[in-house]
Amino acid sequence: MTSASEQLFAGTSLNARDRRVEWLVRNLLGLMTALLILPVVIIMTLLVVRGGPVISWEFLTTAPVDGMTAGGIFPALVGTVWLVAVALVASVPVGVAAAVYLSEYAPDNWLTRAINLAIINLAGVPSIVHALFGVGAFVLFFRFGTSILAASLTLAVMTLPVVIVSTREALQAVPRAFREACWNMGATRWQTIRRIVLPNAVSGILTGVILEVSRTSGETAPIMFTGAAFFLPFLPQGVLDQTMAMSLHLFVIATQVPDAPDALPFGVALVLISMVLAMNALSIGFRVYVRGRKKW
Amino acid sequence: MVEGPAPNGNAAPADALPKVVVQNLRIRYGNHVALRGLDLSVRRNEILGIIGPAGSGKTSFLRALNRMDEFIPGMEVEGRITFDGRDIRRVRNVYALRSRIGVVFPLPVGLPLTVYENVALAPRLRGVRKASELDVIVERCLRRAALWEEVKDRLRSLGSLLSGGQQQRLTIARALSQEPDLLLLDEFSIAVDPVTTMRIEDVLKELKNEMSIVLVTNLVQQARRLADRTAFFLTGEHVETSDTARIFSGIVKDPRTHDYIEGRFG
């Protein structure tokens, strides 16, 4: 016995083929997502299982010894902090200023579009090319020698597009109506930017900066010819010194130091990736916090 | 046609000039002509109502008065507009010009600031720093916009958390905080309930003593209630401007005006 309502639904429901396709598509998309997560899970598991036992307070706070086959990673850790910090100091003001100009002042013409295209292209330049540019420009031409300064400036140039693009997106996310309301009141562009646009774009800008940090701390090629040293048992005293760095240290002990214990590279990689993940977590936390008090 | 001075016998000569004189105003957006050949003046201390169906160029007219074409892509303005006798195209300090003109749009724009800061922004921009002075301005503007009683206990909460009608009154308070001599209202009552609309209309009647007001409205009856003179725009054409009382008593130069206010249009 079929009731009238069942008749109705039989008539309006999707036919069997459409429903099969729906099932297939949904599961296919889910499978792809699972495939995406798989490498991350494998890498993290491997690092934690094999590198975890190496990690100790001593590992983090002492220098490598015995031809880098034992001891800790302290100089590399400090060096990476130096490199990232100086790179930020160099790139954030320039990147944010350029993004503010491009987003708030520049007219929409062919020149602006060409500049935007150039920025995107800059982001696509391979890091080894940036490295060689850094050698030519900062190490040799500006005579900074192989130093933290030269390496950080190279990193800064490389990550500048990240800062510019993320800042510009953060600025564009502030509704235009706010700007027009301010302009209509007689506010100048800068007054509008300072009082309305920037305060509401800060979270997005900081997210970009944190993204830059996580990217900068992992880069190897741009620093290996410009300022990062193979092995230095002491800490840098200033920006014109060379330094060890986590990324290069990992590369070195994994490829150049055959007697290094197997677990050592895993330990170094685990520390490096933990730094990056911690920065990303900070960024996500910050965004959640800011979104909670979003003003429109 | 440039209209003569307002019938205001004992005013000083400079004050007898119309506040705004518009001559042969033509506004285009690319190839689309939004307004053509407009001659119109706004007198001192009057409410000039502008009525007309959608797409008749009312909003474009308001935009031109505040030189908004400078930040609206594609908008081009030709012709001459004088404000207090000065050609606004030749005003170097466009910020000073705009600060004397308050603008209220159909949809409220609550800036992402507190209620207090929304109203204190314009005074701050013109250099008012003392908290006591700002407090006075904020309270006065909110009272005039018929909003004070509702927000006096939540001045420090976000303006965007107010209801739509309250936000529109906040926008009006913000416009008043500029201490403008010209107030442009573009269909301000769309997002406002009828009771509040009436309260704002009462406020406008008072404000008229201090400034000129241009009231663009879709509500013919609102123009009838408020405007001293009413202009009728139709698809970019300025059909006529006349005393509101005359227009609504059927004395019109163009039969289309009559058809529109009688609702016999389109």
Please give a structural write-up.
The complex is a heterodimer of chains A (296) and B (266). Chain A is mostly helical and 296 residues long. In chain A, 74% of the residues lie in helices and 1% in strands. In chain A, helix 2 packs across helix 12, helix 4 (74-105) packs antiparallel against helix 9 (189-218) and helix 4 packs across helix 11 (246-255). The longest helix of chain A is centred in the N-terminal third of the chain and has 36 residues, at 16-51. By secondary structure, chain B is α/β, with parallel strands linked by helices. Helix content of chain B is 35%, strand content 24%. In chain B, strand 9 (229-234) and strand 10 (237-243) form a beta hairpin. The chains are: A mainly alpha (296), B alpha/beta (266). At the A-B interface, helix 8 and helix 9 of A face helix 3, strand 6, helix 4 and helix 7 of B.
Quick one: which chains have the greatest interface? A-B, 20 and 28 residues
CATH third-level topology of the largest domain in chain A: MetI-like fold
The largest beta-sheet of chain A arranges its strands as 1-2
The major pleated sheet of chain A works out as: 2 strands, antiparallel
Q: Report strand order across the widest sheet of chain B.
A: 6-7-8-3-9-10
Instruction: Give the fraction of residues assigned to helices of chain A.
Output: over 70%
N-to-C series of helices and strands of chain A: HHHEEHHHHHHHHH
| Beta-strand residue fraction of chain A | under 5%
Unreliably modeled segments of chain A = none
Shape of chain A: globular
Number of helices in the DSSP assignment of chain A: 12
N- to C-terminal distance of chain B: 28 Å
Low-pLDDT runs of chain B: 1-13
Task: Spell out the helices and strands of chain B N to C.
Answer: HEEEHEEHEHHHHEHEHEEHH
Q: Structural class of the secondary elements of chain B?
A: alpha/beta
Which CATH C-level class of the largest domain in chain A is it? Mainly Alpha
Mean pLDDT of chain B: 89
Structural category of chain A:
mainly alpha
In CATH terms, the superfamily of the largest domain in chain A is MetI-like
What Rg of chain A, in angstroms, do the CA atoms define?
A: 25 Å
